[in-house]
């Protein structure tokens, strides 16, 4: 069975993923396809594990440090009202974290982003805007 996260990670080496932001201690950071929440990032664990609880605790701690670094970079660069983080794994069976900036004009501020219809979440940024966000996050993460 193919893993979409592993395939995306493989594209880093080929330079084939323009939304790649950075490689941190335990993860690769990407700008998410959905940008209704400008700056929304996904961090994939560097190697394939299906369950967070199966990853050694020391690695889990380093992975969460990566999550915290991305959250802090989003706050510095994009000034959201808050940052939500989630590690789910229900649809993509590769350990990953969602780091989602939430803004003052958020239409569903008290709910997780997934309650919004998929069509609303699929908001795309122009290629120029996407690259600008990626560049800002790379600079903020000092990579």
CATH architecture: 2-Layer Sandwich
Highest-level CATH class: Alpha Beta
The third-level CATH topology is HIT family, subunit A
- Structural shape: globular
Unreliable segments of 5+ consecutive residues: none
In round numbers, the mean pLDDT is 93
Describe this structure in words.
By secondary structure, this protein is α+β, with helices and mostly antiparallel strands. It has one domain (4-141): HIT-like (HIT family, subunit A, 2-Layer Sandwich), CATH 3.30.428. 36% of the residues lie in helices and 18% in strands. The chain is built from four helices and five strands, in the order αβββαββαα. The protein has a five-stranded antiparallel beta sheet with strand order 1-2-3-5-4, with helices on both faces. Helix 2 (57-78) crosses helix 4. The mean pLDDT is 93.
Brief write-up:
This protein has 143 residues and is of the alpha+beta class.
Topology diagram in text:
Elements: H1 4-14, E1 20-23, E2 27-31, E3 41-45, H2 57-78, E4 82-86, E5 96-102, H3 118-121, H4 127-141
Antiparallel strand pairs: 1-2, 2-3, 3-5, 4-5
Task: Provide keyphrases for this structure.
143 residues, alpha+beta, HIT family, subunit A, 5-stranded antiparallel beta sheet
